[in-house]
Write a structure and sequence with these properties.
Multidrug efflux pump. By secondary structure, this protein is mainly α. It has 15 helices and no strands. It has one domain.
Length: about 450
């Protein structure tokens, strides 16, 4: 297994070959999420709500850890483009150490803060709170392994080894799908069983990634690097990590608003997000592809290839987002019924899909341009855009709920997605015309 040079060959062919494995991996993860939600949904809306409440804290941990994933991806892909083996080794080893440190910290953090966090959400359902914390306890050690799975996936993508990352992800997803019904229903562990199945699948994936990574690169964990190297990685990844953290914190505050509308509304949001992931997980695959593609070509100073690659990614993303828009607008109740039988939860979920369905194209635009900026080593731009308009969801939700009830929260999410998509595209074009990043506008 060797690194793949993304600076050579026909742009469309290279980008599509790079994107398809990442998108396939996203589809696999999406498939698992949907099946998992389907299985948990059969336990009732309270079971879905228990996972929904606990998942926000896991999201906080993932958002902060993204700092290491993003910075490692940027620095390693640039080093590969420059063919600088020494820099490549340095940032891989540093990223590995930081990732391990973050994983151990958050494994303990979610257990310590779990109960007061769930109480803060004011779910007003003792069973949901107990099951939510049980899920967090199981998810605690899982975080260490999931952190490394995210990190290895990004590193493999930087080397152009998307197919191997896909293969390993597929093994984890299939294993998780097989274990879910066994633990949830056969062993009658319910929500706790879903967490155990995810833990085992993540452990297997991490071990496989570690074995295969030895064929691609060697980690020098004995080498000593100055504090400046660690700080550089943290500073580089911090903007995007802050963006994701804010997104999660805003989601938590919105969830607190949603709890006032009952556990059916909490369950509806969780189900709606899983269905909406049909769009953002696949488009997220394009984000990863364009980040790796742009990263290597930026390191090699192939600026025209960057322009063409971003154009191809935008076209693919828009076409796919239009398809999901039609799906959400035409079949919202049918999609909701796949996961839950409660009539009120189905209705709330359907309204969520109708409202956010109108903005899938703008979400795709934002995600793809974010990948381009990250590949260029300019994460502050998309981070700033996202932070401003994601934070705006809170006052918008407060205002809209006075007129529309819980649908006002869905509307605040949609409005922010439209604004983020428009501004991300505008800034990319503006930077191109100014020649700041030596990339012509699309």
């Amino acid at each position: 297994m060797k690194k793949i040079d993304l600076t050579q060959g026909k742009v469309v062919s290279v980008l599509v070959a790079l994107a398809l494995p990442i998108m396939a991996s996203s589809v696999l993860q999406l498939t698992y999420n949907l099946i998992d939600m389907l299985l948990v949904g059969r336990l009732g809306s309270d079971a879905v709500a228990s996972i929904g409440t606990s998942s926000f804290l896991i999201g906080v941990a993932n958002a902060i850890q993204a700092c290491i994933v993003i910075s490692t991806g940027i620095l390693v892909s640039h080093a590969i483009g420059r063919k600088d083996e020494e820099e490549q080794s340095k940032y891989l080893s540093t990223g590995f150490r930081l990732n391990l440190l973050f994983g151990l910290f958050f494994a303990l953090f979610v257990i310590w803060i779990g109960k007061p966090f769930i109480s803060f959400l004011n779910v007003q359902n003792e069973w949901v709170e107990l099951q939510g914390y049980a899920y967090l306890v199981v998810s605690s050690p899982m975080l260490i392994f999931s952190f490394f799975n995210f990190w290895y996936t990004r590193v493999f993508n930087s080397f152009g080894q998307n197919k191997m990352a896909l293969k390993i992800s597929a093994i984890g997803v299939v294993l998780n799908i097989m274990l879910d019904p066994l633990f949830i229903y056969t062993f009658k562990l319910g929500v706790l069983g879903a967490g155990l199945a995810t833990l085992i699948a993540n452990v297997v994936m991490t071990l496989y990634f570690y074995i295969k990574s030895k064929q691609l690169f060697q980690l020098d964990l004995t080498a000593k690097y100055g504090i400046s190297t660690y700080l550089k990685m943290i500073r580089l990844g911090l903007p995007m990590s802050s963006q994701r953290l804010l997104f999660t914190l805003v989601s938590i505050l919105l969830a607190k608003m949603i709890t006032s509308f009952g556990t059916e509304a909490i369950a509806a949001q969780k189900i709606g997000l899983q269905i909406e992931s049909i769009t953002y997980m696949v488009i997220g695959g394009l984000n990863g592809a364009i980040a790796s593609f742009v990263g290597q070509n930026y390191g090699a100073k192939n600026f025209n290839r960057i322009k063409e690659g971003v154009r191809v990614a935008i076209i693919i993303g828009l076409l796919y987002a239009l398809l999901t828009t039609v799906l959400f607008l035409v079949f919202p109740k049918s999609l909701a019924r796949c996961f839950v039988t409660d009539r009120q939860t189905i209705e709330i979920t359907a309204n969520y899909l109708r409202i956010v369905g109108l903005t899938q194209v703008f979400m795709a635009i934002e995600i793809i341009f974010n990948g381009a900026f990250v590949g260029l080593g300019m994460p502050k731009i998309p981070a700033t855009i996202s932070i401003v308009f994601t934070a705006a969801r809170i006052p918008m939700a407060w205002l809209f709920t006075h007129w529309m009830g819980v649908n006002g929260i869905w509307l605040s999410i949609s409005v922010s997605m439209v604004l983020k998509g428009i501004l991300a595209g505008y800034v990319y074009h503006k930077k191109g015309k100014e020649g700041i990043m030596d990339v012509a506008a699309i």
